[in-house]
Specification:
7-stranded mixed beta sheet, alpha/beta, 524 residues, 17 strands
Amino acid sequence: MMYTAEKKNTDLLIVGAGLTGLRAAVAALERGRKVTVLSKGPRCSAGVIGFNAAVGASDSRERYCRDILESGQGLSQPELAGLLAEKSDEQVGYLEEKGLRFDRKQDGSYDLLTPLGCSAPRLVHRGTVTGAEEEKIFLGEIERMGGELMTDTYVLDLISDGDTVYGAMAVIGGRLTKIVSNAVIMAAGGGGGLYPITVYPRGICGDSYAIAARAGAELTDMEFVQFEPCCLTKPEKLCGKGISTTLLNAGGRLLNARGESFLSRYFDGTSKMQKDRLSRAIFSEAKACGVPCLYDLRDVPEEEIRAHCLFYKELMQAGMDPKTTLLPVMPAAHTFLGGIKVDGGLRSNLKRLYAAGENLGGLHGANRIGGCAGAETVTFGAAVGESAAGVNELSEEELSRAEELAGALVEEYSAPKESCPEKVKALLVSLRETVGKDLSLVRNERGLLEAADIFERLNEAAENIGAADTKELINLMSLKNMLLTAKLIAKASLERKESRGVFYRGDYPEKDPAWNKSIVLKMR
């Protein structure tokens, strides 16, 4: 099909309408910028229970930063860790000014939870609906200040010459559109949908990493994929949904199929427990028994379960009362710890391209402490919106360059190739099967080499397929993006010949000081 592209201009283009993108939009609008936010659809905002902030009497910004760096095992960028620890408590005050009332104790202090990896109570929250409340506030502010939020859109490519980003090519309302902007913020991170089982909506499948890489952005730490330890395996409609590990601090236990409480064999106590080792412990016990492990919440007060189990109502409706039923759980793909490499201003190596939220790499290093995913959405969202709002306008020469590059992309999408949507679906099935088998919780050289070979063959097949309309173009580009992201994970995983944090090589099970460094990948 021969495509033509409509044109749109904006000061700041934000790819992704989760909490990070929305918070960035608010920050830029507050600085007088014209802002356009593109939303693909699926996002995890409502699932954010709360976020870490150093507001407790026993806590401090220094202690918070130290926890991040220790969890990252030598790979967290100190500048980013410091920024998160120093600025997240400001977002508590900001949200309270906008009307969010965090839960407090009778003495007026915050009702803080202690996520895994935190050395002090640190998670501020509004029941289990903190993310939904934040989203409501940000959407209201964007509407009030005249920001533009476009839903049901799909970004195909960044308009880039490998040095500067000038905007993006997207499908909006079924029409191919070139959006020229002074700066682009990538805030559509997450790639759990690459995996057969994930805590994320299926549509969050790693598009944005591939889009950035294809444009010439450096990506770092792509081998580090965090698995949520305690995810339901049934009922089917709740498969992959996580049951909060904070309940382990409230009387919850993990049992193997023989009914044995096994955590004491792996840990001295829950205060030292991190998600990476907990996931592997559950994986090991389940593999030894041949069936999922069991989450025993029978000794947890019902009010605690209600407060910290997002799917309590659905479990009850399915006849699985947590007070009387042992819940079958297994680890499921969750957070991508790697992503676009940025500096302290959240700028990538490409001019005019920024990244925040799960699109950003370098903050968490080899492991993420609980509660920091929620913290970086609002903290880095605010920081990146402010940073990108200060970029200079495109010059006439740059505008001309943007038109030239966009035209080349349109020609690429219009290349005369046979449409074959059923083949695209089949290739996607093969991709997910390979990712689930060889890029999962435990990896090894043989599996990674086999995966890399399969990805190459799948990509060759995808390159020979065309699209009859923009719907098919979206599906085809989504497949290509997922393949590229999977290839990046496999490449980084092959290179790192050790085990560290959430990354585990069965053929290199020990940490090696020689690998106390990040792997940075660049395509062009």
